[in-house]
């Protein structure tokens, strides 16, 4: 189990197919949003229906990271601190360190980068050796703090109190990106304090936890339809405010954007409430869900290979077919490599746990 599955020492629970679908959707969105990062989209003028449609789709797949955070909150909101709790981070760190080593080797062999050993170690320590490992840097903080956040949440003994906490966090982290930064008569207006915007991961975490404690009865179809409408509105605002120039966020922007948060909630809850009857589909979705972290981390290597192969065709007129020509093989190759990494990190973390449990090691740690 990966990023947001249950903790060691807790009772095993039946996997929820909807959550696996949400995690698979998130990892597909990650690969998709990197398509815009690598295809020159941000340097193209926002003109024509094609660029408008690309902008709308970009806002949809931009929900990838919020989806992971919502899943984490949904699954971890009831977890408690205990001595076994910290074992849950070992496998994640093993995957990250392994992918960091692979990425360094790739940079040496593919890009012919020559750095000193100290520089390579520095890249690992700065979470830059594996280019997509910034998420691990963020997730470590969430992992360490979530049991204590949960203690505070348990003190909120009514739904109304939890809602007030959410409204406070939304006001601190989501509203500033929507209401601040307006230029009036040459002066920047920031009517909402924006000091705490960086806490947005915890707002998503709490939103996911809220849906776990107080489920909202709404159909997946209604969720996805609302998400589509919100993306169309956001994409249109982005297109209009660009005024024929290159892409800009317009009102709001980033993962702390209120619009992005709303779309993320709709996509997450729509996926979470889906049911799957086919056992084969359940197994396939469950497998991809388990390897999602490894798949995500290693995908940078395959991004570089396949985007270099298709570089000459990456232009707005070809986006529709280049998207499938690049993203599908990147996903398949990353999934294959991710499965191997998942098995490797599981074996290593299991071995480390066994070593730590040896009597001599336990006595050494105790002293």
Could you give the count of β-strands? 2
Strand content: under 5%
Radius of gyration: 22 Å
Average pLDDT: 90
Helix content: 55-70%
The main β sheet shows up as: 2 strands, antiparallel
Low-confidence stretches: 1-12
- Reading the helices and strands in chain order gives HHHHHHHHEEHHHHHHH
- First-last Cα distance: 33 Å
SS-based structural class?
mainly alpha
Shape: globular
What does this structure look like?
The protein is mainly α. It has 15 helices and 2 strands. Helix content is 68%, strand content 2%. It has a two-stranded antiparallel ribbon. A hairpin with a 2-residue loop joins strand 1 and strand 2. The longest helix is centred in the last third of the chain and has 39 residues. The chain is globular, with a radius of gyration of 22 Å. The two termini are 33 Å apart.
Concise description?
With 367 residues, this protein is mainly α. Helices cover 68% and strands 2% of the residues.
Defining traits:
367 residues, mainly alpha, 68% helix
Describe the protein's topology.
Elements: H1 17-38, H2 48-61, H3 64-76, H4 90-110, H5 117-125, H6 134-154, H7 159-173, H8 175-179, E1 182-184, E2 187-189, H9 200-213, H10 220-242, H11 258-272, H12 279-290, H13 292-309, H14 319-357, H15 359-366
Antiparallel strand pairs: 1-2
